[in-house]
Amino acid sequence: MIIESKHFGYIEIPEEEIIRFPYGLYGFEDIKEYVLLGKVGNDNPFMWLHAVKRPDVCFVVIDPFVFRKDYSPSINEEVLRKLQVEDPSDIRFLSIVVIPQDISKMTANLQGPIVINAKKNIAMQVILDDDKYTTRHYILEEMKKGA
């Protein structure tokens, strides 16, 4: 399958890599299919969550464990049921990143992670009922703390 991207041009992706969001993302409830672009490497932990049918919708995301080793979101049974999770090891987390002009102030949303059943490529954004995480965790500061 070929998708069009405002930022990357035309990209060929295997159909099985499409991640389905039955409920969409907050603010983007009408967009149900995304693909993850970019690979996590030592030099670049960022990826792009790109809408399959909307060339203009793309989010920078990061695995929160890259900068916050102690991240431990509590996911309730209803979410696990909706995502058809059979084995907890199939769960993967992503955080949406905001990159301002001063990139040293980039933040990740740890309170509203994207939870993915990596085995079935079904995902949803969840708002955690936990006040230890916020929508703005400063990535570089967190990385320095963890080093």
Give the second-level CATH assignment, the architecture.
Roll
CATH class: Mainly Beta
Number of strands: 11
Rg for CA atoms: 15 Å
Could you say how many structural domains there are in total?
1
Distance between the termini: 41 Å
Which stretches are poorly predicted, pLDDT < 50 over at least 5 residues? none
How many helices?
2
Share in helix = under 10%
Structural class by helix and strand composition: mainly beta
This entry's quaternary arrangement is single chain
Q: Keywords, please?
A:
BH3618-like; mainly beta; single chain; two-stranded antiparallel ribbon
Q: What does it look like?
A:
Helix content is 10%, strand content 31%. It is built from two helices and eleven strands, in the order ββββββαβββββα. The strands form two sheets. Strands 3, 4, 5, 6, 7, 8, 9, 10 and 11 form a nine-stranded antiparallel beta sheet that branches. The mean pLDDT is 93.
Summarize the topology.
Layout: E1 2-5, E2 9-12, E3 19-20, E4 33-37, E5 46-51, E6 58-62, H1 77-82, E7 91-98, E8 107-108, E9 114-117, E10 122-125, E11 137-138, H2 139-146
Antiparallel strand pairs: 1-2, 3-4, 4-5, 5-6, 6-7, 7-8, 7-9, 8-11, 9-10
